[in-house]
Amino acid sequence: MEDTSDDDPPGQVDHDAARREDTVAREWERTGDGRAAAEVVAAVAAALDVDPVTLPPLAHRIDPDSLDDLLADAPNATVRFTYAACRVRVTSRGTVHVVRDAATTTATTRQR
Fold first, then answer.
1. How far apart are the first and last CA of the chain?
2. Is 91 exposed, middle or buried (0-12, 13-18, 19+ CB in 10 A)?
3. Pairing with 66, which of 1, 31, 34, 85 sits 20 to 30 Å away (CA)?
4. Residue 28 and residue 43 in contact, taking contact as beta carbons nearer than 8 Å
5. Which residues span the domain enclosing 75?
6. Structural domain count of the chain
7. Is residue 4 in a domain?
8. Closest-CA residue to 72 (of 14, 21, 28, 13)
9. How far apart are CA 71 and CA 6, in angstroms?
10. Burial of 6 (C-beta count, 10 Å sphere; 0-12/13-18/19+)
11. Distances (CA, A) of 37 to 9, 13, 102, 107, 112
C-alpha cells in the first residue's frame, strides 16, 4: 500500500483520462463509512464490463478495512495497487481511477 500526496488538485478528476476507453473514474462523497473498498470494486467491474460478483475478492489484493481506514484518516492520501487486471488509484478525497491493463485484459478475454 502506498500513501502519498495526490498529484491532482483537490476536487479535480482527470476527465481526459476518463474518456479513454480503458479508464474509469468515479467520485463518491467521503463519509468514512467504508465505501472506498466498495467503490473500487464497482469501478473495476465497470472498467472490465463485468458483474462485480465475478471479480476476485478485493481482500486477495489489499485489506479493504485498512484501505477504508487509511482513506478516512488521512486528508490527502493516495493508494495505488493492481486488482483484477487493472491499475487502481484511490484517494482520500473520494476519487477512484481505474485503468485496464491491456495485455492482461487481452489474455484474460482470450481465456474465456
1. 30
2. buried
3. 85
4. no
5. 16-111
6. 1
7. no
8. 28
9. 12
10. middle
11. 22, 19, 23, 26, 26
Report yes or no on 70 lying in a domain.
yes
Q: Is residue 57 part of a domain?
A: yes
Cα–Cα distances in Å, from 40 out to 25, 59, 97, 112?
10, 12, 8, 23
Q: For 7-59, how does the pLDDT look when each residue is reduced to its tens digit (9 = 90+)?
A: 444 444 444 544 455 788 877 776 656 688 999 999 999 999 999 999 999 99
| Residue 35, amino acid | R
Q: Is residue 8 part of a domain?
A: no
What pLDDT is recorded for position 30? Answer: 65
pTM of the entire predicted model: 0.70
- The 10s digit of each residue's pLDDT in 59-73 is 999 999 999 888 888
